[in-house]
Amino acid sequence: MAKKKKPQPLFSMRVAVVLQAAVSIGVISGWLSYLVAPVLPGAVGAGLAAGCMTVVLLHRLIDEV
Fold first, then answer.
1. 8: helix, coil or strand?
2. pTM for the complete prediction?
């Protein structure tokens, strides 16, 4: 009888933390941008930019620690 292998997680803990932070910051940034000037494309762009920069920043920050 073959041993069942323990399933591997889809993401590591690091990836999960970075993505969760990026999504949260992106949504908050987009929402605040929309409150300041109710232009939906601009708010979406601001949220995407903030989320992408969060991924880059946290990736580099975690590497240094």
1. coil
2. 0.81
